[in-house]
TrEMBL record:
Belongs to the drug/metabolite transporter (DMT) superfamily. Small multidrug resistance (SMR) (TC 2.A.7.1) family. Gdx/SugE subfamily. The keyword Membrane applies. It is found in: Cell membrane. NCBIfam families: PRK11431.1. The gene is sugE. It is a multi-pass membrane protein. This is Guanidinium exporter. The keyword Disulfide bond does not apply. It comes from Stutzerimonas nitrititolerans. InterPro entries: EmrE-like (IPR037185), Small_drug/metabolite_transptr (IPR000390), Small_multidrug_res (IPR045324).
């Protein structure tokens, strides 16, 4: 169950990272409120997952999900570049996440 909680914590991390873009420097009230709520939920879920998962593993996977998801969201939502080097770098992060999960 902790892995599922951690996965959702990572999804909310993607949400708040993307939300930061929409807040326009925290000048837009609704995106700002949603972003802050996603931050709180993400960290709260991370804390719950860490009850039974090792700190280093949980934190690395949480940030990895956020990093990979944010790159994908940037490509889809904001037209950011899709170079082979960039995609290869994301693949390396994914490989590391799988390695951490398997080593637990």
């Amino acid at each position: 169950m902790s892995w599922i909680i951690l996965f959702f914590a990572g999804l909310f991390e993607i949400g708040w990272a993307v939300g930061l873009k929409y807040t326009e420097g925290f000048t837009r009230p609704l995106p700002t409120c949603l972003t802050v709520a996603a931050m709180a939920i993400s960290v709260g879920l991370l804390g719950l997952a860490m009850k039974s998962l090792p700190l280093g593993t949980a934190y690395a996977i949480w940030t990895g999900i956020g990093a990979v998801g944010t790159v994908i969201a940037g490509i889809i939502l904001f037209g950011e570049s899709v170079s082979l080097f960039r995609l290869g770098s994301v693949l390396l992060i994914c490989t590391g996440l799988v390695g951490l999960k398997l080593s637990h």
